[in-house]
Amino acid sequence: MKQLSRYISVSAFLIFLLIQTGSALLAQSPDPKFDPSFIKAKQLESDLPDKAYDAYATVKKEAKDPELAADALLRAALFAQSSSFGNSDDMHQQGEIKAHDTFKQLEQQYPESKAGRYAKSANLKELIETKIDRRNSTKWNYKLVDGLVAMTGRISSFSYWFALLIIAILVKSITMPLTLKMYKSQREMQRIQPILKDLQDQYKNDKVVLNQKVMECYKEHGVNPFASCLPMFIQLPFMIWVYNTIRLYEYHFANGKFLWIGSSLAHQFPTVLGGNMSQFDIPLLCLYAASNYVTMKLTPATDPQAAQSQKTMSVMMTAMMFWMFLQYRWSAAFIFYWLMMNIFSAWQQYTYIYKPNKVKLSAAGEAILLPKVSTASNGAKAPRLTTPIPGGTASRPRPRRKK
Questions:
Q1: Do 161 and 256 share a domain, yes or no?
Q2: CATH of the domain at 78
Q3: Are residues 85 and 78 in contact, defined by beta-carbon separation less than 8 angstroms?
Q4: Burial label, 236 (beta-carbon count in 10 A; 0-12, 13-18, 19+)
Q5: pTM flag (> 0.70)
Q6: Residues 331 and 218 sit within 8 Å (Cβ to Cβ)
Q7: Are residues 168 and 125 in the same domain?
Q8: Which residue stretches of 203-281 are H helix?
Q9: Number of domain units in the chain
C-alpha cells in the first residue's frame, strides 16, 4: 500500500514536472501565427529600431496576402509606440507619430482584416491620438488654432474650416509686401522682354557679349532678375509652419465638416469622400488642382514661345501636385488651406499682373486705331480716318467714294 502511494506521488510529480516543462517550452516557442517574413524585423528591434520599422513596412509592401500586409502594419505600429523604439524622448515622440500614421493606414486600407478589427476594437489609434494631442497642446501654434476654433463655438460644420480660412488670410497679409515685390519684378521683366529679344538676335553667336549686354540692360532699366525668386524662398518658412501647425491640431479636425465632407454622402463613399476634415477627400483635391492651374495661367507670357512653355508647365505642375497629394493622402484640412491660398493668389495675380497687362495691351491696340490728322490745303487741320493693316502697325487712308 505504501509502495502504491509512493508510486502515485512520484507519477504525479513527474506529470506536473512534464506539464511545467512543456509550458515553458511552449512559451519560448514562436507564435503559431507568426509569419517567417517578420524574422528580420524582430531581430532588428533591439539594435536598430528605425530599421526594424522599415523592415515591417517592407513586408507590408511586398505582401500579396492582405492579411499579412495588415498584420505587418499592426506589428509596426505596436513596436513604434513601445518603449523599445529608441532611447530618447525625441525618438519616442517620433515613434508615437509613426504609430499613429500606421494605425491610420491600417484603418483606411484593411478595415475588415483581423489586424484591422483588433486595432479598432482596442481603440489603438484613439489612445495614441490622446497621448500625442496632450503633448501637442502645450505648443503656441496649437493654442492659436484651438483659440480660433473656440472663438466660433467649436461648431463642427463651421469653426474648423473657418479657422483655416483665418490662418490663410493672416499668412497672405504677412507675405503681401513680398508678393507685391515679386509681381513688380515680373512686370519689369515683361517690359524689357522686347529689348532682351533684340539682344539675343543681335549677339546669338557670342554668348559672352550677350550675357554682358543683358546685364547692362538690367542695370540700365533697374531690373533685378532675382527679385522675383527671393520672396518665394522667404515664404517657405510659412509653408513649413502651416504644415506643422495643421499636423499638431489634426486630431481635432476629425470633428470638423465642410459641405460634403462629413455628410451622409461621405459615409456611402468612404474611399472618395472624407468622413471629416482629418481624412483625405478627392473632390477637394480636384478643386485644389483646378485652382492651382488657374493661378499659373493668370501669369501672362512675354512671347509666344514663353506662352507655350508656360502652358506646358501649368499642366505638368498641376499634375505633379495632384499626384503628390494623392500619394500621401494628406488630410482635407491641409488641402482646404492650400485651396484658400490658391484662391487668394489667383485674385492677386489677376489684380496686380493679369489685369494691368491686359489694360496695357488694350491701350496699345486702341492707339493703332486712333484717327490721324492731316493738313488741309487752306492750312487747317482736318481729321483723316485710317484703318489698321493686318499684320502690322502701319495704317493707310480709306479710299474716298466716287460721287
A1: yes
A2: 1.25.40
A3: no
A4: exposed
A5: no
A6: no
A7: no
A8: 207-221, 230-234, 236-248, 264-268
A9: 2
Distance CA 253, CA 160 (A): 7
- 4 Cβ partners below 8 Å, 6+ apart? none
If we measure between CA atoms, which residue out of 113, 103, 107 comes closest to residue 65?
Answer: 113
CA gap 105, 110 in Å, rounded: 8
User: Cell numbers 554682358 label which residue?
Assistant: 212
For residue 334, what are the domain limits?
A: 142-362
Asked whether residue 54 falls in the same domain as residue 103, the answer is yes
The series of mean pLDDT values per 10 residues for the chain, 403 residues long, is 54 48 37 64 76 85 87 88 78 85 85 89 88 89 91 91 92 80 72 78 78 80 67 74 86 88 83 85 90 76 60 79 81 89 83 68 54 46 44 46 50
Q: Tens digits of per-residue pLDDT, 13-68?
A: 444 444 444 433 333 333 435 567 777 777 777 777 778 888 888 888 888 888 88
- Residue whose C-alpha is closest to residue 103's, from 133, 125, 126: 125
Give start and end residues of each alpha helix (H) in 63-158. 66-80, 89-109, 114-121, 124-136, 140-151
Q: Mapping DSSP to helix (H, G, I), strand (E, B) and coil, where does residue 299 land?
A: coil
> Residues, the chain, total?
403
What is the number of other CB atoms lying within 10 angstroms of the CB of residue 204?
A: 9
